[in-house]
Amino acid sequence: xxxxxxxxxxxxxxxxxxxxxxxxxxxxxxxxxxxxxxxxxxxxxxxxxxxxxxxxxxxxxxxxxxxxxxxxxxxxxxxxxxxxxxxxxxxxxxxxxxxxxxxxxxxxxxxxxxxxxxxxxxxxxxxxxxxxxxxxxxxxxxxxxxxxxxxxxxxxxxxxxxxxxxxxxxxxxxxxxxxxxxxxxxxxxxxxxxxxxxxxxxxxxxxxxxxxxxxxxxxxxxxxxxxxxxxxxxxxxxxxxxxxxxxxxxxxxxxxxxxxxxxxxxxxxxxxxxxxx
Length: 277
Prior knowledge:
single chain, 277 residues, mainly beta, CATH 3.30.1330.80, nine-stranded mixed beta sheet, 5 helices, 12% helix, 47% strand, globular
């Protein structure tokens, strides 16, 4: 498929390529390249209508995170299967026709493998992942299979037009706590200078081994597990019509942090404490 390159620049050591939508043209066989549909800026502004199908997304990666059309829950792509964790905490697999306004995936090919023993809270886990990642890595795709404790997870309910900005939606998010669970923590670390295109720093989702629990991670403690990291230096961003790339790094970091960490007045506890998986 032909594609129009509308932007091609370096963000630190990260090679960013933004493409107009032309059949999601992308070299799916290339390793260590992340592929993204949409931008965080557009999502935060309320662009919740999906434009890329999960079938198209999965053609470019088998591990990833994001959301789905109408912002109907947290998207998790694991081992090539797409799941959503809905606002009531329900986990369900998704048909390939489902659309997404914002998601990022990679064809996971880890070059770092490490068996680890904690306990590490979320802040310490970030430190340890920074230590394990190659210093030259611009972005890293992350997968940790293990045992976790003190999980605090969230999701949101589907929205209807006219859509509210994301900062207002998360004011009514649902949160739940889990004492201990076995499963997979996955996501990405992006450079700070990508703020607005992506979530800067760490963005992680969780999916339980029994597929009965999951969500966007607000907090957790890693007890022990297997860490796998896939470092990369290239991000391809597919843009829907009438959406621009914006200025990388120019986004309001405080606003992003508030959205990622949860708004004031959200449904604390939401579906309540959940049983361990």
